[in-house]
Amino acid sequence: MNRPVVDDNKTNGDRPSRNGIVKWFTRLFDLKVIRTIVITIISLTAFVVVWQVIANALSSEFLPPPGDVFDAFIIVFQGPDPATGLSMWDHIWASLQRFILGFILAFVIAVPLGLIMGFSKIAEDFGKPIVEIFRPIPPIAWIPFLLIVLGSILGPVVAIFIGVFFPVLSNVIFGVKSVDPILMDAARTLGSSKPTLFRKVIFPSTVPYLMTGITIGLGIGWMCIVAAEFFGARGGGVGQFIIQQSNIGRWDWMFAGLIVIAILGFVTTGFSRFIERRVSNWMGQM
Question: Which of 13, 27, 75, 118 could bridge to 173 as Cys pair (CB 3.0-4.6 Å)?
């Protein structure tokens, strides 16, 4: 009896694609994912319903119903705002430029400084008094001073820098101090130099704490940029858009601006958590 001939190369070649499809469907129909999506939809729906009920009960122009805000949200992206001559995309880009620059400055200074202060007792004793003096001051409290001294362009950037700097610095210091002493002793016993110790032991162990600091700093940074644009930043910005719409009584447009800020904050925080998961997976494979 003749046995059917099986092309092993074809079978093996199809297997990776089939496995990928199976994994995709498994993830798509994961009960935890479905549960999260359903709860999110229910939560947002309940929020909109409560908003509509309150708006109807108050019958006030200061709290427009969600339908009006949704219409305004669509309109603001279709063309320039008559009050400023800028489109919402222009305002978003202006805010993002300030935010990204302030965040990068805070990151490149806070991370190495936190590593040094966490590793060196002398550096910690020297820097801790200065940090503890300025850290409790709300970043928003600096904004009027920064706008007067540094101007409407650099002032908001420094405000974001302050808002992001301290959460990142504090978490990096705590992460360094949380490194397992056994790993440190083992690395020293094997003759690791200080640069190698930083690169192979201290920094990888600090990454989860660093990502926590970044997530916290992102939220504070968005509060700082909106507040700075409220106070008088020039050249556009979502915060500037919001305050201008409130000044002329277009409350539906103002709420549309608030939703834009919420979306930007949600996207940046989600991106940081995505990076955190990827870094955690990468560290788990090391």
Answer: 118
